[in-house]
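Pilot study result, target chain (291 residues):
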Amino acid sequence: QLIPSPVKSIALAHKLPVWQPQRLKKHRETLTQLRQVKADAFVVVAYGQILSQEILDMPTAGCINVHGSILPKYRGAAPIQWCLYNGEAQTGITTMLMDAGMDTGAMLLKAYTPIRLLDTAEHLAQTLSNLGADLLIETLLKQELQEIQAIPQDHSLATYAPLIQKSDYGLDWSRSNLELHNQIRGFFPNCVTSFRGKSLKISATAPLDSAYLSELPSQLKMRSQDWSTLDVGSGRPGEVVKIAKGIGPIIQTGKGLLLLQQVQLAGKRAQSAWDFANGMRLEVGEVLGNS
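Predicted structure:
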C-alpha cells in the first residue's frame, strides 16, 4: 500500500488540491491547473522531475528551490551523502531561483550547520530539513518585501553530487579509517563488505585515533585504553585486531583503526557490532572483505 508523503497528508487535511502527474512535462491538464493558480511563487523541494521553462516562467516571483548544500558546491541529487563522504566540516541550505540548469540558479539565502564526526546521512538530512524549513519561510517573507538581492553562482567553483550507485557501497579496507568512516556514514545504511562468504552491511563506525578523541562519545573516550595500546598497522587491511568487550570489533584499515558499531549480516536484522561479534563467535585475526 502506497503511503502519502507528509506534505500530501497535510495538504489533504487542509483541503488543499494535490496533483501528482507521473510525467509533469507531458501532462497538459496539470500545466493548465498550475497556470490557473496564478501563483506568486512555486516552491520546489526534492522533486524528482525537471521543470520545463514553461513552468519556470509561470509564477511572477519565480520558482524557489531549497537545496541541501552551500551552493555552488554539491549541485545534484545527493549533496548530503557526498559532503559526508568527502569529510566536510560544515554544510547547509541554499534557497535559489530555479533556471533551466541543474541547481545553477541565482542564490537567495544560505544557512549553515557544522557536521559532527558521527553524523550520518540520516541525522544530517533531519538537521537540514529543519534548517531548510526555517530558511524557506525567511526567503518567502523577504522576497515579498523585496529585501533579497539574488546572487549569481560562480560556476567555476561548482562541484557535483550525483546519484549514489551500487558500486559506491563497496568497502575497500586499504583506505584509511576516516575515509571508510565517511563512506559508511555518507552512504548510510548501505555500505557493504564480506564476512565468511556472506554480505555484511556496516552502518555505524568510529575512527579510533587521538586526533578524533574529542569528538567521540564519552563511552569511547573512557575506553581509549582498548585501542590506544594496539600496534597500529600490524594487521592486514580488514583484519579484526581486537574485540572490545561491550563495544565491538576493532578493524585494521590501510591507515588507522576503525571500530564497528552497527552491522547487518545478509538475511539477519541489524544489530550492534558487539552482539554480532558474540553471536558469530568472531575471532581476532579474521579478515573482512576476504571472500
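One observation from the pilot: The two ends are 38 Å apart (CA to CA). A full batch analysis is planned for the follow-on phase.
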